[in-house]
Amino acid sequence: MSVVISDDILQAARMSEAELQREIAIMLYQQRKLSTGKARHLAGMN
């Protein structure tokens, strides 16, 4: 599954795609919806 986020949203948030992806991973981890490993994978971290 893919989620498309428009460039307008990224520009409004003043974030790159990678930064937004990392923020989403952190938020989901903090809400205990993702494990550490899944959050790291989503954030693009090894």
Taken in chain order, the helices and strands follow as: HHH
Helical residue percent?
55-70%
Strand percent estimate: under 5%
User: How does the major sheet shape up?
Assistant: none
Number of strands: 0
Unreliable segments of 5+ consecutive residues: none
| Oligomeric state, counting identical vs distinct chains | single chain
Tell me what you see in this structure.
With 46 residues, this protein is mostly helical. Helix 2 packs antiparallel against helix 3. The protein is elongated. The protein contains 3 helices and no strands. The chain starts with 6 loop residues before the first helix and ends with a helix.
Key descriptive features of the protein:
46 residues; mainly alpha; 3 helices
How is the topology of this model organized?
Elements: H1 7-13, H2 17-30, H3 36-43
Helix pairs in contact: 2-3
Entry summary:
With 46 residues, this protein is mostly helical.
